[in-house]
Amino acid sequence: MVRFTVLASGSKGNSTVVTGGKTRILVDAGLSCRELFRRMKLAGEDAATLDAIIITHEHSDHVSGLAVTARKLGIPVYFTQATHRAWVRWLSPRKQMTYAQWLEQCRQQAAARMAEADAPTADDCDPEESDTTVDDLAASADNTSSSAPAPKKKKTAAEKDPTALPSIQYFEAGKPIQIGDISISPFTIPHDAADPVGFVFQAEGVRMAFATDLGYIPPNVKAQLKSVDLLYIESNHDLEMLRDGPYPWSVKQRVLSRVGHLSNEACATYLEAEYDGQATYVVLGHLSESNNLPELARISAERALNGRASLLANRLLLAPQHEPLSAICF
Ligand SMILES: [Zn+2]
Ligand SMILES: [Zn+2]
User: Fold this and answer.
1) How many angstroms separate the alpha carbon of residue 10 from the centre of ligand 1?
2) What digits encode the pLDDT tens for the residues 253-306?
3) 197 Cα: distance to centroid of ligand 2 (angstroms)
4) What is the pLDDT of residues 173-190, one digit of tens each?
5) How far from 174 is each of 26, 159, 236, 315, CA to CA, in Å?
6) Distance between Cα 92 and ligand 2 center (Å)
7) Does residue 256 lie in a domain region?
8) Does any domain span residue 106?
């Protein structure tokens, strides 16, 4: 069974469950742990069976629930090294750390994780999340940080280090990895983050491309989006709505830039002129609530797809922000 379930999409949070064979991966964790679990239940996904979390980039709408969720489930988190580092810095804004110090902290955390691996603690979660109903899923990390002041009383791992994770795995754009039954090809996308990536997931012969948060579609991304069965692509804003909308000029410039977000128009241009029409499903994602309307995004993509007779079989779906999209099954 191969399944693609968008739990949330947009600037208030992004998260998707990709299932292939016996493996389930959470792609980004941009909602609170409690809300992620609630949406998984709504969508018929079992949080307790997740095997790993993989992160596209460190913006808060992709990682806000990451640490709590990973600790609660006791599962590994896959990042690029630069994204992990940026995330750690984001959560430790007052900590001035050199790269060497950061590496040393990671080394010490890894040693602490190994030492604690057989003694999981149950108190390693955000108090806000404490009523989440996943049983028997204790966090296993109880790390110490080299640069933290000596604790006066016993603290939970999260208090000691909010970036503590059960296990960290690094990957690099351009180098495919395997998580259980799912093959993953990470590729670089143009976006204003430390080392942002998109993915092609492949399982049981089904290929699913994941490309949101990108300012434009460069040749390396176009190459990745070929011959896929599912295309999850950004359709962030309507250009006119953005230009006339409420954002300050600097933010408008950022969104419009080559490392911002893909407009309805840019998405449609790609679908019309370059997309190979192979996907059974085209899913539009990361729609702006301030600068877009679902119907504008839909019409724009529909026109682009319908302009080509061979593409009539493509099913067009929109990924919502506030509720999960029904699981897409292959
Ligand atoms: Zn985003
Ligand atoms: Zn982003």
Assistant:
1) 6
2) 999 999 999 999 999 999 999 999 999 999 999 999 999 999 999 999 999 998
3) 10
4) 999 999 999 999 999 999
5) 20, 36, 25, 29
6) 19
7) yes
8) yes
Residues pairing with 61 in the sheet: none
Q: Could you tell me the CATH number of the domain that includes residue 64? A: 3.60.15.10
Tens digits of per-residue pLDDT, 82-104? Answer: 999 999 999 886 656 778 887 88
C-alpha 272 – ligand 1 centre gap (Å): 24
Consecutive 10-residue averages of pLDDT for the chain (330 residues): 97 98 98 98 97 98 98 98 96 74 80 61 36 35 42 62 95 98 98 98 98 98 97 98 95 96 98 93 97 97 79 84 97
Q: Which residues contact 159 (CB under 8 A, 6 or more apart)?
A: none
Distance (Å) from CA 52 to ligand 2 centroid:
21
State how many domains the chain has: 1
Distance 188 CA to ligand 1 centre (A): 15
Nearest to 195 by CA among 176, 170, 228: 170
CA of 46 to the centre of ligand 1 (A): 24
In a domain, 269, yes or no: yes
Partner residues linked to 176 by β-bridges: none
179 found inside a domain: yes
Determine contact, residues 189/213, Cβ cutoff 8 Å: yes
